[in-house]
Amino acid sequence: MTPRMQLAASALALAVSLALLPKAAVASSAASPSPQDIASMAQTHTGYPVKVSIYASGLNNPRGLTFGPDGYLYVAEGGKGGTHQTTPMQCTQVPDVGPYSGSPTGGRISRVDRHGHRFTVTDRFPSSQTSAATGSLISGVADVAFIGRTLYAITAGAGCSHGVAGTFNGVARVEADGSIHWIANLSRYQMHHPVQNPNPGDFEPDGTWYSMVALRGELFALEPNHGELVRVRTDGAIQRIVDVSASQGHIVPTALAYHGHFFIGNLNTFPIVAGSSKVLELTRNGQLWPAADRLTTVVGLAFDCRSRMYVLENTTGKNNPVPTPGTGKVVRIDPSGARTAIITGLTLPTAMTFGPDGALFVSNAGFGLPPGMGQVLRFDLDVGQHGH
User: Does the global pTM surpass 0.85?
Assistant: First the structure.
C-alpha cells in the first residue's frame, strides 16, 4: 500500500461516522449506526417496486457469498483481527500498512437460513488487520464456493507477513464439523511464481486473494495485489491461468465471474479516480479484452439469465478519493451496452451473488466498521415478472 493508500485508509473511520450517523450523534464517540441505519441508505432504481431487506446481520467484515446445495447462504468473513505480530527477522513485512497484527483463528464462515438466523460453520481461519494508523482494516476468509456438497474457502489474511506466523494464505476444504483441511498453499505458490509486473511500493508477500469460483469440479481464484488468476484442483495442484499484471499492470483485479468465459473486474489503486475501473473478458486463447469501462472500484460481478452483467462498485462519485460509505452501487449492463445504476447508497459493499429465486444478495458494511456491524442485504428483483 502506497502513502496515498495510507491516506485513504486513515480517512475511512471519519468518513464512516460522517456518512452513517445523524449529525447530532457524530459528536458523540459512543454513538454508532444501527443495522437499519446502514441498510436504509440503499435505494433501488429499477422502474418497479423492489423489496429491500436485511437478510443477515451481526457479521464480522463480510466478503464473498455463495448459496450451498442445502439452499442456505454461506458468507465468508474477515473476522476480528488479532494482536499477534511478526518481525522483519521472521519474514518480509508489508510496506507502509504494516506491521500487521492478527490471530491464527477468528476468520469465519457463517451459514444463514431463510429466516435470517446465522450459524457459525467455522471460525478456525486466520484473521489479521493493518496497522491502526492505516485503519485497522481486517482480512480473513475472502470467499467460499461449493464443489458438489463440499465447501471450500480461500483466505486473504493469513501468513507471516500478515502477523500470523506459521500460517499461509490458501484454499481449504471445510468439513461438516467445522474442521478445515488445507489443500493448496497459495502463499508459497506466489513466492515461487512471481508475476511479470508486481508493484514494489504496494506488495503483499502472502497475497490478498479476493474471489473464487467453482467450475467443472475445479476452483478458480483471483488475487488483486500481485494480479493473477489461478486454477486450484482439489488435489492441491495450482496452475496460473493468466498473469493480469503482464498486460494490464497493477490494476488490482478483484471481481471474478464466469459466463461462458471468465470476466474480471478491477478495484484500481488509490486515490480513487471515478471511471478508472473496468471489466475484462478472458478469451479462450488467454487474452484479456475490454468488456466494460467507465466504472469505479469494482468488487463484484454477476450475470442473470438474460446475460445482463451486474457490477458492484464499492465507492463512486467524482469527489470521493477514499472509500466512502453510502456511495456504493450496482450497475446493470445489458448485452447492448446500455447500463443502469439499479442500486445506489450501499455502504462499503464487498461482494454479491444471485440467490436461487433470483433475488440479489450484497455483502454490505464489508470493511471499515467494527466487527459485528456487517450485513447482507437482499434485493427482491421480482423474478417471475422481470426476468432474472
Answer: yes
